[in-house]
Amino acid sequence: MTRRIVAQQALAPYHPAEYLPGDRVPDDDQALVQAAGDIGTTIFHPVGTAKMGLASDPLMVVDERLRVAGVERLRVVDASIMPTITSGNTNAPTMMIAEKGAAMILEDAR
Question: How far apart are the first and last CA of the chain?
């Protein structure tokens, strides 16, 4: 669709050029879908797949001490416990989760 739009005479004075996927990819849906999958990425770091929350939350996977609900002696100590993604990079919060998680594991082992 984008190729058809930029090929219109009204845009000719602006000399639009396709950067990616480029003219090496033929103008057919299957090739363009493949190129989109090869090129496409996200800048977001996945979080929340093992959401920390209250026992009353049906989406909760781990409690406040990072223990997996219904499974003894198993914890999740990574970015997946974040209920929502942070507004910045996830590196520092993940390191904080790891440090606090390690401390809780040591405390509970005593």
Answer: 63
CA atoms within 13 Å, Cβ hemisphere of 92:
4
CA-nearest of 89, 88, 63, 87 to 77 is 63
Phi-psi sector, 62: left (phi>0), alpha (psi -120 to 50), beta: beta
- Residue 68 contacts residue 60 (beta carbons within 8 Å): no
Name the active-site residue from 25, 32, 35, 45.
Answer: 45
Residue with structure tokens 């040591």?
A: 106
- Phi then psi for 75, rounded to 5 degrees? -130, 160
Active-site residue 15, yes or no? no
pLDDT tens-digit map of 12-22: 999 999 989 99
pTM of the predicted model, to two decimals? 0.59
What was the pLDDT predicted at 46? 76
